[in-house]
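Hi support team,

I'm opening this ticket because the web form for multi-chain structure prediction keeps timing out on my end. I have pasted the exact lines I submitted so you can reproduce it. The total is 281 residues across two entries, so I didn't expect it to be a heavy job. Is there a limit I'm missing, or should I split the entries? Thanks in advance, R.K.
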Amino acid sequence: MVVLSAARWVRSRLSDRFWRVQEVLKYARHFRGRRNRCYKLAVRSVRRAFVRSTKARKEKKRFLRALWITRIEAASLEHGLKYPAFISNLVKSQVELNRKVLADLAIYEPKTFKSLAALAQRRRQEGFLAALGDGKEPEGIFSRIVHHH
Amino acid sequence: RYVRQLQRLQLLFSPTAADARGARQFVEEAAQDFARQHPDVVLYVSPHSGPGPAPVLRAEYLNGTVREELIASKTSEEIVQLATKLANQSGLDIIRIRKPFHTDNPSVQGQWHPLTNKPSILNVQGPRLQPQ
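Hello R.K., no limit was hit. The queue was backed up. Here is the completed structure from your submission:
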């Protein structure tokens, strides 16, 4: 409602203030204290909440990766392997599973995870033999690399 | 085979109100073509006489959700676009989907519990375990 002359503009009053206020308050309903009721306080809190939620999208990725790593570490320690040994040996055996999938396997498919831990352990032993044995013994079976062309 | 999730479209408008002009034009021109192009959607046209509520296009879906869209002061083409949009939707609520995946059976081998990787002697209860 654009009114051109100033005198008329002063006389027209806002009629949908309630709904404009509700648009902001609906995002503040679960806040604590007066911030969920009073518009003046709610505006500031809602704006900060939105800013924090956009910034948190980057941190969510970091947080979830740390969570997966914790879970994989706990599961591999149950099978007698530490996390760096587990991950490095899986990568050397060309098992390209990411941490998300490994954490889900550890929770929902414990036997599969046990077999993966055994694979990593075997590859680790073969790595030690190749490094320390030096020489005439044949290469380990699980150390062979498959080339995809 | 594709089953259209839209069950019926109800066009509620008043034949005399000024903002229902687009709805009236839609009914005169494009409603029949729309109904022919979407044979599995039932189109109800219900004019209520006299001054009443704002003209509305009500869509009912197979899972029971009812979605109402205001068509006040919209042209006939816009109403056609709106109707096709509603016809291509399913009745699920339009909120943020938390996860793009869902399973009813997440675990095939049995979910992990603290006794999965422990020796099964810990789980045995009974008179056999008491020391003699």
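A quick check on our side: The domain at 6-88 of chain B is CATH 3.40.30.10 (Glutaredoxin). Let us know if the file doesn't open in your viewer.
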